[in-house]
Amino acid sequence: MLHPQTNVTACTAPFYRALSDEQCRLIHGASLEILERTGATVHYQAAIDLLKKAGCFVEENRVRVPAHLVEWALRTAPSHIMMYDRSGNPVMPLGDRISTYGTGSDCLNILDRGTGERRKALFQDVVDGICVADAMPHIDFIMSMFLPGDVPVAADVRQMEAMLVYSSKPICFVTYEWEGTAEIIELLEVVVGGAEQLRINPTAILYLNPTTAFRHNEGALRKLMYAAEKGLPTVYLPDVQRGFSCPMTFAGAMACANAGQLLGLLLAQLVNEGAPVILNAAVPSTIDMKTMVLPYVEPAGRSYSLEMNSYYELPSFSTAGCSDSKLLDEQAIMEATLGLFYATLRGGNMIHDVGYLESGLTGSLELIAICDEIISWLKASLQGLEINAETLALDVIHEHGLSGDFLESRHTLRHVREDWQPRLVDRHNHEQWQASGGLSMHERARAKIDETLSAGPRHVLPPDIERRIRTITDSVVAARMK
Amino acid sequence: MADKVQRIAESIYSGDVEAVGELVQDLLDGGMAPGEVLSDALLVGMDKVGRDFKAGDLFVPEVLFAARAMQAGMDVLRPLLADSEIASSGKYIVGTVQGDLHDIGKNLVRMMLEGGGFEAIDLGVDVSPSAFVDAVREHKPDLVGISALLTTTMAQMKVTIEALEEAGLRDSVKIMVGGAPVTAAFAEQIGADAYAPDAASAVDIARELQAA
Predict the structure, then answer these.
(1) How does pLDDT run across A300-340, given as a tens digit for each residue?
(2) Which of A191, A442, A460, A477 is the most buried (most CB within 10 A)?
(3) Domain assignment of residue A279, given as a range
(4) Helices A21-33 and A67-76, interaxial angle, to 10°?
(5) Given this model, what pLDDT does residue A450 score?
(6) Strand, helix or coil for residue A208
(7) Which class for B10: exposed (0-12), middle (13-18), buried (19 or more C-beta within 10 A)?
């Protein structure tokens, strides 16, 4: 029996910092200087006007931001965002260093699991991807996964329709143009029961990629401001590429990326104080200086910058479970695993692009299944060690230690199912493995996908709501065809 | 003499802009013909740059600085060379379509073309079809390069080509398109003359189009 004891500190999870507080402060300071001294070009008059009114220095479309406004925005933006399923149940907490995982949107191609060939993605692949993501226990949110080559008009509307009809998991979505954004958000409102309901229990997040940290294009700004008004969470991620739109060196690149995102954050807070915004506060991109390819995975940078989100206490968005490989091969698994491990360790809240190959151009359903297993493994590996009377089991040890027969103890029976259980990883001995087909992990993943999709997609909405959604999307598509 | 020629080639390779200008002047002062300086020193230097880049031994910024070093040498030679000797491969206009603010790829193509001896005129980003037309009319280029990064702005490429047709200028130029969502099939569909998947091949393709 353990005796009562005060002042015991139980560190129940691994402790990891990518950057120290001092380093975060230096990056933050550099971003403040960039915003105040260099600023950015803002390509939407309404945004310029709002920023000017708040106290920014404006010359035509060049906006410079005084530090105090940034500090204010950081204070008013929420540190925690709870995401809900379509029925209003809280399912995905964003904030602190809690990690959740999801797919990506708009891959042009798919690595066909039947033929192994890389082919253009079709709408059926969008549906399949949603079903797979919906079925995987360790995938928390869904994105469209594929850009359907057989949907000539309003593919983004069709993608939202499919995500709403076939899954209840929180959605992270992209709209192609400003003009269609309101219509797509309206679909969400219809499903949850109104604009106010969507505001109270947000079930989707709008993903935005302004051109660069120094160039905020009209489309992204209009969407940001519209979503902020509605209280709809957004991800605001301008891309900066080291050696192209920001310095080659990481610290400067991070400061630029951070500055660009802080400008978006400020604008959202000016539209609606407390508007939920998700950033990867200082993530720069790399462009391989020989191949000109933007790698999706690399040793430093991508998740390193997540520490800034912890520093700011803002929910974060990251990228992992993906690869630059053209195949689902050793490189793919190496990169997916290392990416997921570091993004989780570094406190990424929304970790997206699970299942991406070829630097984001090709998707693989089998990779989603394999990453589901990797994530499950990671969760188990990062659990804290529980130390109490039951787990120390000193009496059990005394009873069975010398005779070595713990297998016969009820204590063993009580705890035998607590270990991580492999679903795709195989631990049989050779004979057993041969007997069940001698399959590779890729083959097992493929079988799992086949099994998942064999029953067909499940319809999660009440039939009348589904009908209403389809009617709306049909009319939107018809209008755009003209 | 041979030693100085070697040093020019090396200075180009290492992107030493200051050294090249001085060394070229040195060779001229020593009596070498401008045309020979061009072919034996400058072009030899750039040639190795091109080969080593293709082999994956040089990084893009190194190629760009080498090109700048070569331009420094050209600046000294140009007034002395006969028109026929000037290694200008042609005039090339580049721009990113209307509604699109992305320019990295376009800038890279422009810089690589300049390194390859082209005269490249950059119209910038968010370039309307009529601005493309005006530029073609004014500069009379051999080639027009159109860039788009978004699936939503790709459509503007076709609009731009149609605008050139309407203005009666389409046949006076060769059109090359590029950008992340662009494919060879798309290029053919919209009536472009060529598609380049990256900046390095853009230069090779531009040379082919020019020769045709």
Answers:
(1) 766 779 999 999 999 999 999 999 999 999 999 999 999 99
(2) A191
(3) 79-241+273-381
(4) 130
(5) 97
(6) strand
(7) middle
Chain centre to alpha carbon of residue A207: 10
Q: What pLDDT digit, counting tens, does each position of A65-113 carry?
A: 999 999 999 999 999 999 999 999 999 999 999 999 999 999 999 999 9
The two three-digit tokens of residue A178, written as one number? 């400003």
For residue A258, is pLDDT > 70?
Answer: yes
Which of A211, A348, A268, A207 shows the shortest CA–CA distance to A47?
A268
Measured between alpha carbons, how far is residue A323 from residues A109, A115, A145, A445 in Å?
Answer: 14, 20, 15, 17
What are the angstrom distances between the C-alpha of B52 and each of A280, B46, B57, B74?
Answer: 37, 10, 5, 22
Total tally of structural domains belonging to chain A: 2
Q: Do B152 and A177 touch (CB under 8 A)?
A: yes
Please indicate if any CB of chain B lies within 8 Å of the CB of A100: no
Helix (H, G, I), strand (E, B) or coil at B93: strand
Check residue B212 and give its pLDDT: 78
CATH fit for domain B90-211, picks 3.40.50.280, 3.40.50.720, 3.60.10.10, 3.30.70.3270: 3.40.50.280
Query: Which of these, A344, A308, A343, lies nearest to A23 by C-alpha position?
Result: A308
Determine, for residues A290 and B59 on separate chains, whether the beta-carbon distance falls below 8 Å.
yes
Let me know if domain B2-85 sits in CATH 3.40.50.2000. Answer: no
* A478 part of a folded domain: no
Computed over every residue of chain B, the mean pLDDT equals 89
Return the bridge partners of A82, or none. A93
Q: Could you tell me whether strands A100-101 and A90-94 are parallel, antiparallel, or unpaired per DSSP bridges?
A: unpaired
Together in a domain, A281 and A410 = no
| Closest Cβ opposite residue B101 in set A215, A287, A290 | A215
Q: Do B151 and A147 touch (CB under 8 A)?
A: yes
Residues 21-80 of A with CB under 8 A from B: 43
Q: Do A294 and A187 share a structural domain?
A: yes
